Each structure stands twice: as structure tokens, then as C-alpha cells.
Amino acid sequence: MLLRFLMPVLAAGLLCASAAAQTYQANLGPMPLDEATKRNMLGRGEATASWDGKTLTLSGRFAGLPSPATKAYLFVGPAIGVPGTESFDLTVSQADTGTLSGQIALNAKQAAAFRTGKLYVQIDSQKAPTGNLWGWLLPQHFDAPPGEPQQGPWFLPQLDTPSR
Fold first, then answer.
1. 38 within a domain of the structure (yes/no)
2. Chain centroid offset of residue 85 CA
3. Interatomic CA distance for residues 134 and 145, integer angstroms
4. Distances (CA, A) of 94 to 41, 65, 80, 155
5. Is 145 within a domain?
6. Which domain range does residue 119 map to?
7. Predicted pLDDT at 36
8. What is the total count of domains within the chain?
């Protein structure tokens, strides 16, 4: 009798634990550039985001901007690599090297966008006020060494679904 009661409780606990373990990462690099903008869009950075089922907690760092950062955002795009319009403000160091952070309560649609890689981080700077660095939040993964193929669907989380 006790076993019949404990099994559903244990299963629910495991489901909650797996939901709490969703960690994604972003490699922040220069936004698309051309000859006219490439000298103003320099630098690199990284960010990680954790989802606890209610709140997305984001932190990161960056360096090498050609001018101080002015703002940072978390955007919701329609697909991986496609810019979006819905955004949330993040806290960012007003410097050419620094950190960014934020805590955002996501609704169900935004949480689904997070799980499918449609959220991205953007850092604006004085010389690139509409975007200096950006990167999509994708499932945390190991990067294969140069010359080796990357294994698994880490870069396309919307395709990481069970077989039917």
C-alpha cells in the first residue's frame, strides 16, 4: 500500500528535478556586419541561463568591445538565428569589458521559446547602438575540438525530440 503511494510521489519529484536542470549557454559574437560596420562590432562573450520552471536566471561576461556597452537585452526570435522584437532588459556593465545579468519571469510561450533555442542575448554599445554582440541560448554542450564533427542535436534543440 505504501509503495503504491510513494511511486507517484517519486515520479513527480524526478520530473520536477529534470525541469530545474535546464541550463543553456550562448557564445556572444559580433552581430552581422559589413565593411561600414565591422570596426564598430568587435569583441566576444558568453552567457548562461538556468530555468527553474518559473524564472530564467541569466549571467555572462564580455570583453573587447570597441566602445562601452550601453544596454543588454534578452530577445525572443521566431527561430534560431532570426532576430526578434519582444525583449527584456538585462543589467550590463557600462564598459568595454564586463558582465551582464538578469532574472526574468517567463510565461508559457516564452518558456517554450527558451526550450527551443529562440531566445538570444544582445549587447549594444556606444559605437553600435543597435547591437554589438549577440548569441542564441542553446542547450549546454561540449564543443568538439577543431576538425572533429560535433555530435548530437545540441545546436538545434527543437529537433531534440523523442522518436515516435
1. yes
2. 16
3. 23
4. 16, 11, 28, 31
5. no
6. 21-139
7. 77
8. 1
